[in-house]
Amino acid sequence: MFTGIVEELGEITAVETLDDACRFRLRGPVVTDGAKHGDSIAVNGVCLTVVDHEGDEFTADVMAETLDRSSLGVLAVGSRVNLERPMAVGERLGGHIVQGHVDGTAEVLERKPSENWEIVKISLPADLSRYVVEKGSITVDGISLTVVDAGPDYFTVSLIPTTLALTTLGLKQPGDPVNLEVDVIAKYVERMLGDRAFGRASSEGATAK
């Protein structure tokens, strides 16, 4: 489990294209400190497994399913990426519960800079809009953010200078893709309420008979 608090802005140093997958080599001095084979590291919000580790770089394999469902497929040598290690037991949950399982991709629509922060408008896929609410949490490229405004097909977030300086959202421009992970609690609530409604309907139907 992650928290959406990015530890460092890493870099893709090598890309190897395989038949049905891709292998990335990434540089990240902070997240590789103490890393070992089999560890998890979130890359732009996608939970990847460390295959190899040497110095301040690590290698991770990305299967076709992940490439299809996330924006990792557009990464190239030199691309900057958000990196985060899993939260250790007993540490503070600085952001919100993040699984590293991308729900979909979106696009940066607009940026509105101001003196002390910047408003970024991002598209919202129709199948995810019901999980996004004003003042709720959402993960964008692995960053835990608070929704400022939630429209039918977009949402906005307000970014402080630290977020702009230390994450990929300081670099993204209109048209650039981003990974989205909605709040998993919202999905669980939806499922439980749906099952309860179905259960009541089945029970009432049986009684009527």
Automatic annotation (TrEMBL):
Residues 1-96, 97-193 form the Lumazine-binding domain. Pathway: Cofactor biosynthesis; riboflavin biosynthesis; riboflavin from 2-hydroxy-3-oxobutyl phosphate and 5-amino-6-(D-ribitylamino)uracil: step 2/2. Keywords: Repeat, Riboflavin biosynthesis, Transferase. The keyword Lipid metabolism does not apply. One of its GO terms (molecular function) is riboflavin synthase activity. Its EC number is 2.5.1.9. The keyword Transferase applies. Lumazine-binding repeats lie at residues 1-96, 97-193. It catalyses: 2 6,7-dimethyl-8-(1-D-ribityl)lumazine + H(+) = 5-amino-6-(D-ribitylamino)uracil + riboflavin. It is an enzyme of class 2 (transferase). PANTHER family: RIBOFLAVIN SYNTHASE, RIBOFLAVIN SYNTHASE ALPHA CHAIN. Catalyzes the dismutation of two molecules of 6,7-dimethyl-8-ribityllumazine, resulting in the formation of riboflavin and 5-amino-6-(D-ribitylamino)uracil. This is Riboflavin synthase. It comes from Streptomyces lanatus.
